[in-house]
Every structure is written in C-alpha cells, then in structure tokens.
Amino acid sequence: MRESFILALVLTLGGVGQGVAEETAQAIGDPEAGADVWILCSGCHQIGPDAEIGIGPPLSGIFGRRMASVEGFPYSRSMMRMGRDGLIWSLETLDAYIENPRVLVSGTRMGFEGLEDPTERADLLAFLREFSDKPSNIPEAAPTALAALPTLSDETLAIVGDAAYGEYLASECTTCHQRDGSDRGIPSITLWPEENFVLAMHAYKQKLRPHPVMQMMASRLSDEEIAALAAYFATLGR
Amino acid sequence: MTLNRRSFLGTGLALGAALSAPRAIGQAKPRVVIVGGGAGGATAARYIAKDSQGAIDVILIEPTRTYYTCFFSNLYIGGFRELNSIAHNYGGLASEYGVNVVHDWVIGVDRDAKTVSTAAGHSLAYDRLIVAPGIDFVDGAVPGWSTAAQNKMPHSWKAGSQTQLLKAQIEAMPEGGTFCMVAPPNPYRCPPGPYERISMVAHVLKERNPTAKILVADPKPKFSKMALFQEGWERHYTGMVEWLGPDFGGGNVSVDPDAMTVDIDGSVEKVDVCNVIPAQKAGHIAQVAGLTDASGFCPIVPATMQSRMDENIHVLGDATIAGDMPKSGFSANSQAKVAAMAVRAALTGSRAFPAKFSNTCWSLIDTDDGVKVGASYQATEEKIAKVDGFISQTGEDAALRKATYEESLGWYAGITADMFG
Ligand SMILES: Cc1cc2nc3c(=O)[nH]c(=O)nc-3n(C[C@H](O)[C@H](O)[C@H](O)COP(=O)(O)OP(=O)(O)OC[C@H]3O[C@@H](n4cnc5c(N)ncnc54)[C@H](O)[C@@H]3O)c2cc1C
C-alpha cells in the first residue's frame, strides 16, 4: 500500500527526472516577500478589511475592479478615461502599471517611479491578490495562479515534426542542453516525449513559464519548428 | 428519514460475512468504499468501476434510493422542470457497472482498522475510502432556526421533499404577501444558487401573484454574478426584489418560525414564506471521521484529492476545502475523476495523469435568459488554483442568453449520465 501510494505520487508528478513537463500551476509570487515590497506602497495606500482612501485609493478588492472606480477618490483625467473605457485591474494591467506607471496611464497622479525587478513585482502582486475576492466564493474573481501549460489547438498538436529540420535547429539548443542527456545544471531534453516537449515550448512562447532565456528562444520558433525540434529530441540517440 | 433495512442492489455480494471479513493483503481484489452517492460519490463509483474493469471492488453507501439533484431544483421551483426530471436512482451503477450499492448510513470510520460502520450494524473493510457526504448546517447559524423548524421555514438546500415544500408554500402565498430569504455566509454550496432561486421565485410570483414582495437578507456585501442578477431582476421583475446586504442589516438576522417573523437588524417583519439557508459545514460523517479542520471542511492534497489527515482517504465535493473551486456539482464531478484516477493508480498501478479541474455554473434568470460563470483550475502543491475563467456579460442579446440556457440543458443531461450511467 505504502509503495503504491508513493508510486501514485511519482506518476502524478509525471516521473521525476525523466524530463517530463511539470504540469502544476505556478504561484503568482511569494505573498510573504510581497509584504516587504508593500512598504513602498503603504505610505499612500491602505489594504485590508477596513482600508479607506488615503493619499491613494484603498487596494482591497483591486483585482477585477474597473480603473478609477473608488467613489470619492480624485483620480487623474487619464485614469478616469481608462476607467470609462472599461479597463479592469488584472495581473497583467497591474504588473504593467507597477513596472512603469506612466507607460500605462500617461497622466497618472501616482508619484511612484516604478518597480523594475520582475520578482519583486510578482511577490507584490501575490500579496495584493490576497486582499481581493476568492474564486471559491465568487467564481468569476481573478485567477490566483498562472497556468503551467498552454491550451493548444488540435491543429497545432497534430503537426508532424520534421526530425531532420529539427536536427538542424537543435544546434542552438545543444549549446546548453547536453546531447547525451546528461544534466549538468541545465536539464536534459534528450528523449523527451514529443507532446510534452511541444507543450513546454509553447508554455515558454506564451510566457506561461517564467524562464527568460527559454522565453526568448521559444518566441523565435514557429509552431512547425517546435514540432520539428520535438521530433528530433524524442528519438535522439535511439 | 427512517432507516430502511439494509439492502443490496446489483452484483449480489454475499451479505454480512463477506463484507466484514478481514482482508488478507495480496489476496482479494482491492476494495474501495464510497460514502455518499451524490455528484462526487456517484461519479467516483462509476469511474473506478468502469475504468478498472472489475479489478477493484466498488461499494457505494448512500441512504436514499432516489437522489434529487440540487442542480436544476431551482428550475423545478420556477416551473421549468418536473420533480421527476431531477430524480435519479442507482440501478444503472449496479447493473451496468457492477457497483455494489448499499442503502445505509455510515456512522463511523475506524481509520486504523480501515473499516467503516453503518447504521444497520455492518462493518466494511476498505483499501481506499472516498468520503463525499455533501454539507450539513452549522447549528445556531441563524438564531431561532434549527432543522426542527425546517418544515415551517424550509432551507431547500438539500433537494427533494424540502424543495417540494418550498414550492408549495410559494404557490400558496396570499396575494401581495412577502417571501423572505435568509442568504448564507461564505463558503456554501453553489455560490450563485440563492440568487438563481430568487429569480425563479420572482418568475412564479410575477405570473401568479404580481403584487407579492421578495426580501433577501444577506450577510455578504457581494455575491457571484451580482451585476447579472441585479440587471435581470430590474428588467424582468421590476421593483419586486429588495436585497439587503450587510450595510442594511442583512447580516444581523434572527427568525421566529412559530410567529413567521424575521428580525432584520432590529426591525421585525411578518412574512408568508421564509427560506432560511444557514451557514454550512462538511457533512457530519466527515467530522466524525476526523477529516475536518477548524473551518468545518476537509483539507485535501490537490493532485489526488487525498485527505491531509489520512492518505488512505479521499474527500470530494462540497465537504472539501478545494482551494479556488466553488462548491458545485460540476466541481464535485471534476474532482471525482481526479480521485478515481489516483485511486486506481494506487490500487492497480494504472497510469495517472496530472490533475486538471474545471467548473461552470449556469443560472436561469427568466425564461430563456441564462447566464454562466466558469473557470479552469490546476493543482499547485498548496491548493487547487484558478488559472483562467469566463463570465457572461451584462447587456448580452437575447439569442446568446437563450443559447446559454440551452447549453445548461445539455450540461444537466451530461453530468447526470456521467454520475449514474
Ligand atoms: C439550489 C441549488 C442549486 C444548485 N445548482 C447547481 C448548478 O446549477 N450546478 C452545479 O454544478 N451545482 C449546483 N448546486 C450545487 C450541487 O448540488 C452540490 O455542489 C453538489 O451536489 C455537491 O456534491 P457532493 O457529492 O459533495 O454532495 P451531494 O450531492 O449532496 O451528495 C452527498 C450524498 O451523501 C449522502 N450522505 C451524507 N451523509 C452520509 C452518510 N453518513 N452515509 C452515507 N451517505 C451519506 C447524502 O445522502 C447525499 O446523497 C446547487 C445546489 C443547490 C442547493
């Protein structure tokens, strides 16, 4: 029983060490670390059940809120315009705004330079998310994690990869990933099942997976090229 | 309910002895016992029996012979469905899938011995136990109300005779009378359910008793599909529904079932029908088995739906703390498939794939005016997390709303077939 319990877990995790795609969702960030970043905001903004308007509007319930919609707060005209256009605060819009407020809302009154570090932003967003509606109570509330895998159309999944073309393209990959499948700090991708390879590459391409180098590599590959690489690595050395 | 004599349907298990005999490891077929034959339990029973093709013994213990789905019970109140169209029995699970259906109550779980005991006096051994007992009500949640008063002030939050009673009371309301709902605090089964019910009650009253009033006392400042419901009430039932959130005392309510009065923040109202939906917790047996935490619900491991308290037990549906998933029949059905796969993998070594969950809740506001909210979820180590979703928009055209309603009819046919075969 014990063995089969562990076996089940291993199967569920997709076989550790085989290079199979990790298919669990990713947390937005670390909310505890985000609480430290919040210090940059808390001079002007309040959050929590009793949060009120301060120098800035309260940020409880920010996810899913229309921009410029806290009654009684004197928003800038730019922000009001965005609210009238129906823009909603979401992970994406908040991330862009916190990174560089004036890029998203040119005339914003928020006197904040922006936060360059993506990890700090992610942690802050994870912290802020805890103070908005819970999807278990309000199913339409904003997501609380990032999907690990993209949803691909049947056509994309059906593309048969050209392994010879894949071999040609693979030279870029094998600069880092060892052809013989050894793992020296960079995970092996040799003999990876084709579908997992395709899903993982699309996850990078769609920026669902965080690794910046892989996002850059994947962003340059077409659907056919991803299929070709998958076909090549699936059979490498056989 | 009165307890019937124990009864067995289906594949003719030898009574008593065979069920309670200690099981020698490595000899007999592995056995799964499932407590509760609702959206979670029935689905799990069917999937394990179907996919293991006889390699696992499946015993489903459920006290009632007829399961009335809560889903679409509001449509029955509204006159859109017959009662018998939401009634299902367990004959197909027994005859087509070889599930041993036992009509009995589970009253105890011995986690060390891995046995459950039933009201009829049986003890059944299990290799894996699945607990899916739905909800029970928190005692004292609405001062003045208890289940002893449920015939005067029905909850109708478990379907069947309670739903029938509420419908009859609504239809018997005096002209210009008042219907009151005491709405539940979070978390509760079916987040949009109370508001779909209000829509259906309004639909009935608009036709039969157009000067009647509907009063909702709600402890929550915000609820699911709020903008959609409020738009619909304004459009179809203008002036009929008065919703009192916590700012207007909706969270400070007591009732007197004998006097048929409701006290909302100190002002006492005489009402003709009072639908009290109290605060909820996991079905009692989950607590008896030691599977609940301080919240009254059961923490689970997201990837397998295993109890955090006991790896040999899986918990499904409304009884769980399912992270971002709402308590719904769709969710329970989705979780049941994940658990069924994990159970088969553990007991027979079959393949398990990464857990994927989804949910959609449709609600009917008026004839052909359907709306929906849905999401997909993935397991993180910590919880089942929402990663994506959608919701109907206000101001949608009639054709889209009708299509949404028709989609819900297809869903109902699909999920009940998925549960009962
Ligand atoms: C008015 C209303 C409308 C709804 N509409 C929808 C909808 O449109 N869509 C949707 O997806 N969901 C809807 N729901 C929610 C849905 O009904 C529940 O979420 C779902 O039934 C949960 O499934 P479950 O298996 O956890 O519990 P249940 O379906 O309640 O099943 C639990 C079963 O366990 C049995 N049981 C309890 N204790 C024991 C014991 N000790 N021993 C043996 N058996 C036991 C009970 O008899 C019961 O049959 C609605 C709910 C309500 C109230």
TrEMBL record, chain A:
A molecular function (GO) term: heme binding
Any Pfam family: Cytochrom_C
PROSITE patterns recorded: CYTC
Gene3D superfamilies per UniProt: Cytochrome c-like domain
Entry keyword set: Electron transport, Heme, Iron, Metal-binding, Transport
Keyword NADP found: no
Domain Cytochrome c, first and last residues per copy: 29-132, 161-237
Stated name of the protein: Sulfide dehydrogenase (Flavocytochrome c) cytochrome c subunit
Organism annotation: Rhodovulum adriaticum
From TrEMBL, chain B:
Domain Sulfide dehydrogenase [flavocytochrome c] flavoprotein chain central: 163-278
Taxonomy, superkingdom: Bacteria
Keyword annotations from UniProtKB, A to Z: FAD, Flavoprotein
PROSITE patterns cross-referenced by the UniProt entry: TAT
Sequence ranges assigned to domain FAD/NAD(P)-binding in this UniProt record: 31-145
Keyword Lipid biosynthesis: no
InterPro entries documented for this protein: FAD/NAD-bd_sf, FAD/NAD-binding_dom, FAD/NAD-linked_Rdtase_dimer_sf, FCSD_central, FlavoCytC_S_DH_flav-bd, FlavoCytC_S_DH_flav-bd_sf, SQRD, TAT_signal
Domain Flavocytochrome c sulphide dehydrogenase flavin-binding: 355-420
GO molecular function, one term: oxidoreductase activity
UniProt keyword Signal, yes or no: no
Protein name according to UniProt: NADPH-dependent 2,4-dienoyl-CoA reductase/sulfur reductase-like enzyme
Organism per entry: Rhodovulum adriaticum
